[in-house]
Amino acid sequence: MRTSKRFTTGQRVTDRHLLRSVEVDDVRFPGWNGEPVAAWLLRPRGAEGPLPVVVTYIGYTGGRGLPTDHLLWSAAGYAHLVVDSRGQGHDTPDTTEGNGTQWAEGFMTRGVDSPEHYYYRRLITDCVRAVDAVADLPGLGHRRVVVTGGSQGGGLALAVAGPASDDVAAVMPDVPFLCHYRRAAEISGEGPYEELAKYLRWHSRRHVERTFTTLSYFDGVHFAQRATTPALFSVGLMDPICPPSTVYAAFNHYAGEDRTMTVWPFADHGGGYGSNPVEQLAWLRERGLGVPA
């Protein structure tokens, strides 16, 4: 087992999953309150030199899954850190989950009575510290870190790109969740924003305003205003879960001059599906973040 200030790399699990071209490590790093957060670190087998690193955050109610779920980026020559979501995955518990209000199933109202208690304060802290921790592993290009994810993962990538702009070379939020909470709760026809709508349906107007005050601290629109790193967004124009207007709200407030939106006109919440990584790989290469052939 290798240890460093911010990373513990445990058993190499490549052989367990019968992978021959990829090396996989089961890692832990300290997240919120120093609590260990699980992640997979995948690298092309035998790769030398500092590799550009893609840090991926996961969609709502998902965890890091298995290494075999995440082979694209290592196949393209990148190091790939796949970060578990506390309380949502099986390997990173949310030990403070009972602190604060939770009215409905899910995570959207967990601790929503105050910014100090809100669930996403802890999860976003984990995600920022994942970028911090990359610098402690040898062979990784810690100045060439790309943060990305779809849906919740896209919202988390935006949340990291703001406060960690100096350490992030690019951000790629796909159909991002956690943007413009109020509008999303008002118009979304499916998915997690309905948890907020159901919660607010039974509370007074005063309670509604307090709830959205809490949520404003964790809104991707506000994080976008602090982010200057190059950004590649994507949006599905028929997305019922993360309505396009909420994605465009974050995109239009993004502070960086180098911002691009990939538009999928007839797409639902899956966005571009398998076509989107092709766009991402080309976009990264254009910005000097590709892997040499």
Automatic annotation (TrEMBL):
Superkingdom assignment: Bacteria
GO biological-process terms attached to the record: polysaccharide metabolic process
Residue ranges of domain Acetyl xylan esterase in the record: 19-285
Catalytic residue list: 151 (nucleophile), 239 (charge relay system), 269 (charge relay system)
Protein name as catalogued: Cephalosporin-C deacetylase
A matching Pfam family: AXE1
A GO molecular function held by the record: carboxylic ester hydrolase activity
Binding positions (substrate): 60
